[in-house]
Amino acid sequence: MKKLFVGSISFDSTEESLKEKFSEIGEVLSAKIIFDKFSGKSRGFGFVEMANDEDAAKAIEELNGTKLDGREIVVNEAKPRESK
User: Fold this and answer.
1) Which burial class, exposed, middle or buried, applies to 50 when counting CB atoms under 10 A from its CB (0-12, 13-18, 19+)?
2) pTM check: above 0.85
3) Does 80 reside within a domain?
4) Structural domain of 14
5) Which backbone phi and psi does 63 adopt, to 5 degrees?
6) 11 burial type by CB count under 10 A (0-12 exposed, 13-18 middle, 19+ buried)
7) Is 82 within a domain?
8) Does the residue 76 lie in any domain?
9) pLDDT-derived band of residue 39, with 50, 70 and 90 as boundaries?
């Protein structure tokens, strides 16, 4: 399992449209868009968990710079959160 960071997500995108886009490449375990806890609006990024490393690498290669709901997305490997 490999977690990917997806940036520059359109405010019109849904977790379902994100999952559909990545499902074209391989099995998606989860797709999550991050929302602001106060306003409830999308923060413009999210995470997709791919079932295996090969599909994750292919998704980065093929989907980075492509359009999702009219906006070019950025796709790369998710980095572990740094503790403060």
Assistant:
1) buried
2) yes
3) no
4) 2-71
5) -100, -20
6) exposed
7) no
8) no
9) very high
